[in-house]
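Quick one: structure for this chain?
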Amino acid sequence: MSISKPISLLAWILAALSPLGAQEQDKKPERVPFGQTLNEYGVLNASGCMCEDLEDGEILPPPDITVPEPFQYLRPDLQITAAELTGDQRYPVLTEFKILTPKVRAGDEVRAIARVTSAYNNTLPFVTTFFSERYSRLGSATMYVNFEPSKDDKTLFLGRGRLSKFAPGGRYIVAYATISDDVGKRQSYGAEFHEPLDNEDRTPKFFMVEDNPRVDLRAPELRSVEVETPSVRAGAEPIRFTAVSTDDVSGPVDAEAVWVSPSEEQWIRVTMVHQGSEPGKFLGYFTIPKWYEGGEWRLMRIALTDDARNTGYFFSKNDAVLQNAPVVQVAQDPALVDKKPPAILAVSLSTTEARVGESVTVTALVEDDLSGVRAIEGYVRSPHGVDAVKVKLSSDFVDLNRPSKIPEPNVWSATFKIKKSMERGVWTLVRLGIADEANNFHTYFDGREKILTGITVNFLEEDDAKETEPTRPIEGASR
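Got it. Here's what it folds into:
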């Protein structure tokens, strides 16, 4: 039993009658400090205040969040005036945002409209995230509204999204939207930082959800794991395993497992399929690639998701079920194990100068000692970094009119070009990543690796003189 200190009647009366005492009684709830849980699910609400202590109609206190100064600007070396840029560098601008369904029920459709302007009315469809003010981003407490441009007005976007039928009631606030155009210009908009997403009192725009008796905010639980194939040969025999889970309301619908090699240098992500005739049971079926190491492979992680989109993660280091899961003994010839990434021997561009709309070819000469190259891709960046183009190389070219031309798995190439809205000047191949069939990979960067330093092309204006010179040839490439 706790014993409180005695308080004199006179002291109590004086405190109650004083202005300070009155202020203390009417004081609004303070913001919950980080690390302190708020609700029965162990999370803070979205705004960081104790919503259950607010009276009906009471406005939430404004957040004490400011954008740190280093994040308010571009990198110092990219801070240039608009006059120095060629082309139109304006990113999509969100000017209006309105929710058309202020009150809905769980499972209903949420509708909204937005106005976005861009340089050429070329804004792409985008997604806006909403989540429960009380339960934050827990499973069914999060929803997404997909915006598509109107056929009649390319600056007007119509948004639709369906709330989970297991969503909790209460206020759902808009969180953020990332909007981009078809030339790669992108801008993120967040509530409490951008006016179109806020009400007049600078609180985030929201819609209300009626109370729902079928709320599901808890992730499924892992009950058991069985491995039906205790030993296999790499590249030849499949591994078959099952996982059984339970869920309190909506029921488990998705599962994913991650298997890891003895050295933990190689791992495999496996999508498990729900066996419809047996609720909560998932089947996994995969084969260890022939280039992977042998030994004892084990389950490192299983992720379970229910119909309310709550996801639970279970790891072998802290979950009793996975700790006791059987391992699989994989037989493998050590000479076939590939842990070395492929290498780029040479890179070149087909020209040093081009105009807008003209194609430029990037060619790479590569090698891999065992499994073979699987993919090569990278980025070409504009002079000031305001534009970039992704290039994905391939090696499937065969000239049918030249009998001496045979497939060259060590020569990869791709073409790219810039649009009229992009920046002119010297573009640089700034990054090129390469991966082999054993999923070993390495990324080359301009300035870090000599092989990728100085690979450039100058994109000219229409009226500029063009003097094309060949770039560095690839040594060893066939003609």
